[in-house]
Amino acid sequence: MQDTLEKLQRVGFSTFVRYYPQFIDPHCEIADIKVLLKDECGYTQKSCNSRASKGKCIVRNGDGKAALEIISRASKIKDETRKRALALLGQA
């Protein structure tokens, strides 16, 4: 669980929730997510690489639901992010 939390912190809670559909999509490659992060969020290339690979890694390790649960219980996040995480948990 600690490993998942560390990776999740590197992705960013709101970023993980926002791009969760891409992270769980087996046909969506890390390169595709990097482009989205760069174009939509303006992250640096290095940041895009890290966030995309860590997000995919969380899901690949079977920890996507656990990550959403961590986010839904976090105290210092926006209500919008929490609500979206809870909605995604309902679909998971």
Could you write a compact summary of the structure shown?
By secondary structure, the chain is mostly helical. About 80% of the residues lie in helices and about 0% in strands.
| β-strand amount | under 5%
Summarize the amount of helix as a percent range: over 70%
Average residue-wise pLDDT = 95
Report the uncertain regions.
Answer: none
Largest sheet: none
- How many strands? 0
Which overall shape is indicated by the principal axes computed on the Cα atoms? globular
Q: Helix segment count?
A: 7
Structural summary, described in words:
The protein is globular. It has helices spanning 2-11, 13-18, 20-24, 30-41, 45-60, 64-73, 79-91. The longest helix has 16 residues, at 45-60. It starts with a helix and ends with a helix. It has 92 residues and is mainly alpha-helical.
Defining key terms:
mainly alpha; 92 residues
Write the layout of secondary structure elements.
Layout: H1 2-11, H2 13-18, H3 20-24, H4 30-41, H5 45-60, H6 64-73, H7 79-91
Helix pairs in contact: 1-5, 4-5, 6-7
